[in-house]
């Protein structure tokens, strides 16, 4: 169309230049002759409709629209003057539509800052669905459609459905870790064949272990007294425990729930034969068996208590934990060694290997 319109413009421009030396009388005669030919053409066509190409319409609209309405109506044309004006309006609409058309199809992309904010809200609040996130963004003055939040979560592999509002057991353990204490009985045998029962508890926030005691006869009185000692110990240390997680072992008497309730601690029972509900405690039991009980010949109850005290101290004050970035529950990481001179302040007389490493490091420096 553009090539054809340019051709019509150039040819008619040369035609206009040809009319410059022609007198007004000759122009009027030519105009009358052209009007008569149009009349003859209209009479031959009858009621048939004349077809104009798109470029013909554009040329006639650009040529005739600047004329006054009265002059345009007096012209003898194959179409009405209103048709020429409609052609011009259509051309203007098409031009405006082409200029307003976005360069990229579809919706405009969501701002990166808004996407990061949506993902942060979902990560920090796992129970929120896309509707809740939409409401929170509205309170911040961020106008975004709920369907857009849905698409953002789907693209990141996060389920945006309302089912995400259901709290899972793992989510409960993570959200209440500061107030959770887990407990369990561990059975072991001495060399004499006597069965020993170890009662231990572990904190969820910091995996600090508390070996509460060991006995060959876990009676109700012994368990109750042990729980009382635990409650007093928690109160003395200022631990803010709200829930005690344990299984449904028959060795726990009903009285301990009342003792814990007096200390504002609620008992939470795990499901029947569902050890994963008390996974942190079960993981420590595995570590105890692998690192101590399976590697030590326990003579009697006194020997077992001594070994458990040593292992409790080792576990809480020395053993590294990945969840604590290699620190221990009761021992923080030391300051990093950045200069060779700092190593000389260490007591390396009992560490031959460290002495050799220090010498090689200073020699290299």
UniProtKB/TrEMBL annotation:
The family database entries (Gene3D superfamilies) matched by this protein are listed as:
Ribonuclease H-like superfamily/Ribonuclease H
Coiled-coil annotated residue ranges, if any = none
Q: Which residues cross the membrane?
A: none
InterPro entries (UniProt xref)? Homeodomain-like_sf, Integrase_cat-core, RNaseH-like_sf, RNaseH_sf
Recorded GO molecular functions are: nucleic acid binding
Q: Where is the Integrase catalytic domain?
A: 158-337
The protein's matches in PROSITE patterns, at most eight in alphabetical order, are given as: INTEGRASE
- Report any one BP term from Gene Ontology: DNA integration
Against Pfam families, the record matches this protein to: rve_3
What protein name does the entry list?
A: Integrase
Report the source organism: Actinacidiphila oryziradicis
């Amino acid at each position: 169309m553009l090539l054809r319109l340019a051709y019509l413009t150039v040819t008619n421009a040369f035609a206009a230049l040809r009319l410059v030396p022609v007198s007004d009388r000759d122009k009027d005669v030519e105009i009358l002759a052209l009007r008569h030919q149009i009349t003859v053409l209209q009479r031959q066509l009858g009621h048939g409709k004349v077809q104009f190409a798109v470029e013909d319409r554009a040329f006639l609209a650009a040529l005739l629209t600047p004329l006054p309405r009265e002059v345009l109506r007096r012209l003898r044309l194959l179409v009405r003057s209103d048709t020429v004006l409609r052609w011009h309006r259509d051309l203007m609409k098409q031009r405006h539509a082409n200029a307003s058309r976005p360069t990229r199809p579809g919706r405009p992309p969501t701002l990166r800052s808004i996407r990061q904010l949506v993902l942060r809200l979902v990560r920090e609040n796992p129970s929120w669905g896309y509707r809740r996130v939409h409401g929170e963004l509205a309170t911040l003055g961020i106008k975004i459609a709920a369907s857009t939040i849905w698409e953002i979560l789907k693209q990141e592999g996060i389920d945006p459905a309302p089912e995400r509002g259901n709290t899972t057991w793992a989510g409960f353990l993570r959200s209440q870790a500061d107030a959770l204490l887990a407990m369990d009985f561990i059975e072991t045998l001495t060399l004499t064949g006597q069965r020993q029962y170890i009662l231990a508890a572990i904190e969820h926030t910091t995996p600090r272990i508390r070996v509460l005691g060991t006995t060959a006869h876990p009676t109700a009185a012994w368990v109750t007294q042990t729980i009382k000692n635990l409650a007093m110990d928690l109160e003395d240390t200022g631990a803010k425990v709200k829930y005690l997680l344990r299984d449904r072992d028959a060795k726990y008497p009903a009285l301990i729930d009342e003792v814990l309730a007096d200390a504002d601690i609620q008992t939470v029972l795990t499901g029947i034969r569902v050890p994963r509900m008390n996974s942190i405690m079960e993981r420590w039991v595995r570590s105890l068996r692998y690192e101590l009980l399976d590697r030590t010949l326990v003579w009697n109850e006194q020997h077992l208590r001594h070994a458990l005290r040593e292992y409790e101290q080792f576990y809480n004050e020395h053993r590294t934990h990945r969840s604590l970035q290699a620190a221990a529950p009761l021992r923080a990481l030391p300051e990093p060694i950045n200069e060779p001179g700092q190593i000389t302040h260490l007591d390396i007389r009992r560490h031959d290997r460290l002495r050799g490493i220090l010498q090689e490091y200073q020699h290299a420096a």
